[in-house]
Design goal:
Elements lengths: L9 E5 H18 L2 E5 L9 H7 L2 E4 L2 H10 L3 E5 L8 H7 L2 E4 L2 H13 L3 E5 L37 E5 L8 H15 L8 E3 L13 H15 L2 E4 L3 H4 L3 E12 L3 E5 L3 H4 L2 H4 L17 E6 L8 E7 L8 E5 L19 E5 L5 E5 L3 H5 L4
Parallel strand pairs: 1-15, 2-3, 2-9, 3-4, 4-5, 5-6, 6-7, 7-8, 8-9, 11-12
Antiparallel strand pairs: 1-10, 10-11, 10-14, 12-13, 15-16
Helix pairs in contact: 3-4, 6-7
The structure holds pyridoxal-5'-phosphate.
């Protein structure tokens, strides 16, 4: 079907744009010999895993369910990190994952034997205590009191037996200069233990597919760890894989006034684009401008009863009217993976726009998807 015929609300992933991103990432892999895996927590639309698997080395997971999804739907290298694993899930994790990364020496001691007996690789997450991001404290795993990774003070070299790799994840939407700064901290605090390792995982948060990203510097950082310590380097970006590769298509249901013009859409910031409120950020809206930039400015809001369920203020060339379709950009990542049915909101359909412009609906949702989670 044509883009204009898709039901709303609907997430539409743009195959061409996704593949463009994958080619950028694959170029880094080819030139450096590093491995890049998809962090599924950002984007888990498994209908596209065959395409992603053509370019990347595999998947990484935040827990058993994502690990299963990667195993079943991509079937390539499968990594996992969790703040803590449960007794009842570790054997299944070992059976389907290749790298199992622990967050503490106590978890390492508890489960290491079972990972090694299963022939899988044991990794340890370190915390280099090097904050390079400002503004988004909830996205900073190096903030004081962070529960993520073993700090230098807690490091217990005597327990490293069987550990073949170290993992750090400290970045969020950042460029390679912050990676370089982080590597300095990693070497300063943990460099002594790198020669005995086989691999290092740089985590995610590398905004590699953003226009101004410094790919040569990233490659220099990768080569530095390869050449100096003989390590295999892994990166596990989420955002960068599907950055700017999808849309959320919505319809205007009504317009009202309260000191300004307001449009109610058949979507919800809270349910369908929660990072708009959590991050927070203003998603691009195709054809619209900043407030006041074009003649007609509207506050765009959702259907829920949350007063703050607004997406932002945008301006338009013509007044909005019931039935107009609006297309938000950069809606592939951290959207469908975070959906809720708060207020009984319907879940948006999921669709693909192929390279030739044709669209197909992968999945539609209904009342049952709301009810089944509540009893
Ligand atoms: C969130 C996360 C990622 C992916 O981060 P992006 O910002 O989406 O690139 C990778 N690894 C770990 C451990 C994470 O927590």
């Amino acid at each position: 079907m044509r883009f204009e015929e898709l039901p709303t609300p609907c997430y539409v992933i743009d195959e061409q744009k996704l593949e463009d991103n994958l080619k950028v990432l694959n170029g880094v892999m080819k030139r450096t010999g590093c491995k890049i895996v998809l962090a599924q927590k950002a984007f888990s639309m498994f209908a596209l895993y065959p395409l992603i698997g053509k370019y990347l080395s595999g998947t990484t997971a935040s827990g058993l369910y994502e690990a299963r999804l990667g195993h079943e739907e991509m079937g390539k290298e499968n990594h996992i990190f969790s703040a803590a694993y449960r007794e009842g899930e570790i054997d299944e994790i070992v059976s389907i994952c290749d790298h199992i990364i622990f967050n503490s020496f106590s978890q390492l001691e508890k489960f290491k034997g079972r990972v090694l007996a299963g022939g899988k690789k044991v990794g340890l997450r370190i915390n280099p205590e090097c904050s390079t991001q400002t503004g988004h404290a909830i996205y900073d795993p190096c903030s004081p009191g962070s529960r993520f990774g073993v700090t230098q003070a807690q490091f217990r070299p005597a327990l490293l037996d069987g550990v073949t790799g170290l993992h750090f994840h400290t970045l969020c939407q950042q460029n390679a200069d912050d990676l370089e700064t982080t590597l300095d901290a990693v070497e300063e605090k943990f460099g002594e233990w790198l020669p005995q390792m086989e691999w290092i995982n740089f985590g995610g948060g590398h905004h590699i597919t953003r226009e101004d990203y410094d790919i040569p510097l990233l490659e220099k950082c990768i080569k530095r760890m390869q050449d100096k310590y003989g390590l295999e380097v892994y990166l596990e970006p989420g955002e960068a894989v599907a950055l700017n590769a999808g849309y959320l298509v919505t319809t205007v249901l009504d317009t009202v006034k309260n000191g300004m013009d307001i449009a109610i859409l058949d979507t919800s910031a809270s349910c369908h684009m929660p990072d708009v409120l959590e991050m927070p950020y203003r998603p691009p809206l195709i054809g619209a401008g900043e407030p006041g930039e074009k003649p007609y400015t509207y506050r765009l809001g959702g259907q829920t009863c949350l007063a703050g369920d607004t997406i932002g203020d945008y301006s338009f060339d013509k007044p909005l009217k019931e039935g107009d379709r609006l297309v938000f950009d950069d809606m592939a990542i951290y959207t469908m993976v975070k959906n809720t049915t708060f207020n009984g909101m319907p879940l948006p359909a999921i669709a693909i726009q192929y390279k030739n412009g044709d669209c197909t609906i992968v999945r539609e949702f209904g009342y049952h998807d709301f009810k089944m989670r509540l009893g």
